[in-house]
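Hey all, sorry for the wall of text incoming. These are the two entities for the joint prediction.
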Amino acid sequence: MNRHDLALIGFGGVNRALAEIIHDRGEGLADELGFALRVVAITDLRLGSLMQSDGIDLGAVLGMADGATFAGLTGGVAVPQNDYVIRSTTADIVVEATFTNPVDGEPAVSHVRAALESGKSVTTTNKGPVALRGTELNRIADAQGVRFEYEGSVMSGTPVLRFASDALPGLRVSAVQGILNGTSNYVLGRMETGMTLADAVAEAQALGYAEADPTADIEGSDVQLKVVILANEILGADITTADVERRGISGITQEDIVEAAADGKRWKLIGTARRDDAGEVVATVEPVALPSTHPLAGISGPMNAVSFDTDLLGTVTVSGPGAGRMETAYALLSDIIAIDAHQRALAEATR
Amino acid sequence: MNRHDLALIGFGGVNRALAEIIHDRGEGLADELGFALRVVAITDLRLGSLMQSDGIDLGAVLGMADGATFAGLTGGVAVPQNDYVIRSTTADIVVEATFTNPVDGEPAVSHVRAALESGKSVTTTNKGPVALRGTELNRIADAQGVRFEYEGSVMSGTPVLRFASDALPGLRVSAVQGILNGTSNYVLGRMETGMTLADAVAEAQALGYAEADPTADIEGSDVQLKVVILANEILGADITTADVERRGISGITQEDIVEAAADGKRWKLIGTARRDDAGEVVATVEPVALPSTHPLAGISGPMNAVSFDTDLLGTVTVSGPGAGRMETAYALLSDIIAIDAHQRALAEATR
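and here's what came out:
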């Protein structure tokens, strides 16, 4: 049976959830997937670095005491030697799941670049490298004959990018439109029950939907990164965040909500990328009062959704979780499955 | 460039729309798809049969005067010799788009069987053969080394079956739940505005959503066929319509609608197939008052949707058109693309 060796860069919630899936499912997972998975390296800001080319005991790592580091394990040190580990690991797939840096994408961009340059495929859930350096990184992947996969960069494990590339063959997609941030969508929903924006944000924070600093969610910069990814990936654009006009929901008042409801409408924070008549891709993030019959109007709470406008089929929509530890770990697993399928197809073709 | 020759069985709205796509797009379509399409046979109850192994002039056929038959064309006769044409055509793909017979699936079942037995792949949008004889017909296809594809049997071109088989790798789907009939969904939506069931049905008929006899839509037997397909295709069951408990929307009153609305709920006609704790697939069609946060609650008007309950990703939903001439013709095109891809993969593997 074929096997993939993984290096996990960042061992927070998402990569930890992936390790749990691999550990808990054991050989059953390999039977289901048709290939085995083994983790041979882990790096983490707090835990340090761990390399074991014959496979790390994930049970031991997942059960480590609070405050312990990898220094206590064979092949482990207390400091995260990301670049060294990425370049020298025996892994064939690097799983990048560090934090998103919306300014320059670092250090994730460097992690992805180092992995691709050293001939390894990469899966990431990190919007930064994809939105800010996607073109460059895809070029390196192509030149190296490896894969760069990032389904989880938009809507966690809900297969939006793969839906567009695989499930709509023969269709021309003219626009992509989505509810791409669960926090702002939750807040707007709560405002519909009479809550103020500030109270709704506080509630979202208490529930763990919103960050301590909710600006990226409320002001639309999180959605902005995702719109860049959708525009470039699905409409074949080559835009950056600066090309996406952005307005968040902080200007939406109780009166706006009530007025829209009287018209049978709901305010939603909508990210859009659309090919205009001249063939240019125009991208925006802005609150829109949608009529209740709009495919995105019914997307409630922390759910996310993307609608695709097509020539022969009209509008088709995929909705599902946009966040969550296990949901995002599944995005990584689906990328690994895609990398494996691609390698198999290549092996068939060059036999 | 590879080419597929098609035999169109039934030349009503759907196959006519497919012929329009092929005719109107011309060589551009071949460039986009990577293979050419040619129609070499057409049969129709009213028009008769037409066979031209070097390709039928679709412009001439689409422009035929009302009341004319194929008898006036080279290779044409005024009677539909379906079985003869299906077995003797030089087409490699038979496109079955006759009417759905919910009792025994005929004559479509015989059409599909004849095509598969004579070594041709089949695409159909017809629920009858798939729901009532799917297991048998798939077995013949496998034995013959050809494909039997039927994406359009559930939600026209909206890719529900292919989403389940291709876009959710590594996930265990425990339940499938859908709004699978646009007419009943439209009627329920109109009842929410205060209309009676009878008036809403009459309006749906006037708009062309509902048939002259709306029983199959209103009493859920159309959904029942689709639930059988979803259960067998996605949950690996082997059930028939008799296994699907069915209740339509004719018992839903204005009071039910008002009462649900007061609770923030909406009545929807829901088709469900679910694997129970014992591993058995239980399937039902019934009206359900869904809370507004349910992924299917916001599906309005003639739209359709299917939700998939999965282990790692929770619930994911695909929504889109459930009917329409061009939308259903696209289902056929997407099946043809899948047949082509499968043949290519097979050719690669056996090189």
